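Q: Given only this backbone (597 positions), what sequence would you predict?
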């Protein structure tokens, strides 16, 4: 059995065993707990499910969200409002549940659309989600008798089942949703979420639709939170503005941080423990318990920034050490069909730039740049520092970057397309400084590069990564194919450069933008890269645009050279023509023609 299949089977087995043990615990707990504690735990279990969604958003993707309480409140008020003003029964309950989930999904989609547009900062997203519970609470206050205003709604008809049944419902809901989330974060798609958290820009330039993934994840989290809120309201028979408020949203974040952000089970257990303890402390020390929780939170953030879960896990592993066989990871497979280097069907040039300009306020960085990149050609771009070379790369690969002019990829104008859409048109880009994912393995990075083409499994790991032959050749030449389970932070600079180039090729571009691909490499490594680039242009028909400050390297591999000076094209021709040009010599008198920016 392939190693990946074996690990998938083990993961599913572990999830099933954990789920069954959790359900068994939930089934037996009401028989040993007293009535008071059972009552408290039912509410706590619904809240813990919301904390689990906070950990997915914050811990896995890096979205610091204050808005999950709003979605929890939407589900709760859907229950309270329908049961109070319209009717009660199975049909009404189903309608209220559906309405709550639907409104939560719509609000989450609108919030995500506002918060996760291309180029938005994480701080902006946090502010948007922070405003959400504030706005919703004000709507509740202004609802008068319909929403109960500041007093909320209570005494509405509901299902007065035995506490044992409600405990089973709340516990079962938490166990099932947490199991699904556990499988999600350990799947190929979970690696995509980690990649977005670590290096969102690199994800976008690999063709991963970052904003869409964030929005869909927020919608899914909102639906879970709304379902939890509906259950909470149906059990407690009370809804109040506090259920949708900013304070509860902040408590979700505190519980997540204390339990261990990114550990999933840690925040869930922390929510259960802290909320249950708070119920006891609020009676024993009504004026001090919130202060105590706050002090504990500050101490943990200062001394244990990763929360308690990593410490408990490390202790458990020390007490019960396990011998693990080295994992082999995914297999590398050559793609039977590849679009690498394939542009338009006719003789349309892969890259056409006309009258491109870029202005930052009063600073004109690029002026009236017009150039064409052809298939099977390697076009070098050189110029002094500040000439606008890297800015030109950004304008080609991101439609929102340029101020004026047009950029066409394989005959299609990029318009204002985000980077992931430009990648889909056929552009692959490397960066001046290697841009990878430190905590992910080589095979994970290659899988990410294939996300646009092959997708990623939601609840399992793929057995193989399908790559075009040139990418495989680079991996074999650098020895990376023998270290697929190595985390990228442990690689040498040369290996990181090779991996990034393989990732760009994995996206199957027809236009490659390389920003100083040999920076920091030895002479032997530069020669190897030069041979690879020459083969990519000649054998696979790629249009390669290269920024490089090593003029000898440019002279050896380039078909033509463009000289940028003060944001405009000074000259275009062969390297010999450029170097011998009196115009270039007059501009760069006493200096070597460089391309470092």
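A: Predicted residues:
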């Amino acid at each position: 059995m392939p190693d990946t299949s074996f690990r998938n089977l083990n993961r599913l087995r572990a999830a099933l065993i954990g789920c069954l043990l959790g359900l068994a615990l939930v089934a037996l707990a009401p028989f040993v707990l007293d009535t008071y504690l059972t009552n408290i735990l039912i509410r706590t279990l619904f809240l813990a499910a919301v904390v689990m969604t906070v950990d997915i958003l914050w811990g896995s993707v890096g979205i610091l969200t204050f808005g999950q309480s709003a979605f929890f409140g939407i589900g709760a008020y859907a229950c309270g409002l329908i049961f109070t003003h319209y009717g009660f029964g199975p049909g009404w309950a189903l309608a209220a549940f559906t309405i709550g989930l639907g409104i939560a999904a719509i609000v989450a989609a609108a919030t995500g659309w506002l918060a996760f547009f291309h180029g938005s900062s994480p701080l902006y997203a946090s502010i948007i989600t922070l405003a959400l519970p504030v706005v919703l609470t004000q709507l509740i206050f202004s609802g008068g008798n319909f929403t109960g205003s500041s007093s909320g709604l209570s005494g509405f008809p509901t299902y007065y089942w035995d506490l044992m049944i409600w405990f089973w419902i709340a516990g079962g809901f938490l166990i099932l949703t947490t199991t699904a989330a556990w499988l999600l974060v350990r799947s190929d798609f979970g690696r995509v979420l980690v990649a977005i958290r670590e290096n969102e820009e690199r994800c976008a330039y690999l063709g991963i639709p970052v904003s869409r993934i964030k929005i869909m994840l927020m919608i899914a989290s909102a639906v879970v939170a709304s379902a939890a809120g509906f259950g909470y309201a149906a059990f407690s028979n009370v809804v109040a503005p506090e259920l949708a408020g900013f304070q509860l949203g902040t408590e979700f974040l505190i519980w997540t941080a204390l339990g261990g952000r990114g550990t999933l089970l840690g925040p869930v257990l922390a929510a259960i423990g802290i909320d249950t303890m708070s119920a006891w402390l609020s009676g024993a020390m009504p004026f001090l318990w919130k202060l105590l929780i706050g002090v504990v939170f500050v101490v943990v953030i200062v001394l244990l920034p990763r929360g308690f879960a990593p410490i408990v896990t490390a202790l458990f592993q020390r007490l019960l050490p396990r011998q693990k066989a080295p994992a082999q990871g995914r297999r590398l497979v050559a793609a039977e069909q590849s679009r690498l280097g394939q542009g338009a069907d006719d003789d349309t040039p892969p890259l056409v730039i006309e009258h491109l300009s870029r202005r930052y306020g009063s600073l004109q960085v690029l002026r009236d740049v017009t150039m064409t990149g052809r298939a099977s050609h390697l076009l070098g771009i050189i110029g002094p520092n500040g000439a606008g070379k890297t800015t030109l790369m950004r304008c080609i690969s991101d439609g929102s970057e340029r101020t004026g002019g047009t950029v066409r990829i394989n005959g299609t104008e990029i318009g204002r397309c985000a980077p992931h859409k430009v990648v889909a048109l056929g552009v692959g880009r490397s960066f001046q400084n290697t841009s990878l994912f430190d905590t992910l393995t080589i095979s994970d990075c290659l899988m990410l590069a294939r996300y646009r083409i092959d997708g990623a499994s939601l609840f399992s790991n793929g057995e193989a990564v399908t790559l075009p032959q040139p990418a495989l050749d680079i991996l074999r030449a650098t020895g990376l194919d023998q270290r697929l389970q190595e985390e990228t932070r442990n690689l040498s600079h040369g290996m990181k450069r090779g991996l990034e180039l393989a990732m760009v090729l994995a996206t199957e571009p027809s236009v490659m933008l390389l920003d100083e691909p040999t920076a920091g490499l030895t002479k032997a490594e530069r020669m190897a890269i030069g041979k690879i680039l020459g083969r990519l242009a000649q054998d696979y028909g790629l249009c390669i645009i290269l920024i490089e400050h090593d003029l000898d390297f440019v002279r050896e591999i380039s078909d033509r050279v463009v000289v940028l000076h003060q944001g405009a094209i000074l000259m275009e021709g062969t390297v010999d023509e450029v170097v011998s040009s009196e115009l270039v010599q007059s501009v760069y008198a006493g200096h070597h023609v460089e391309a470092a920016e």
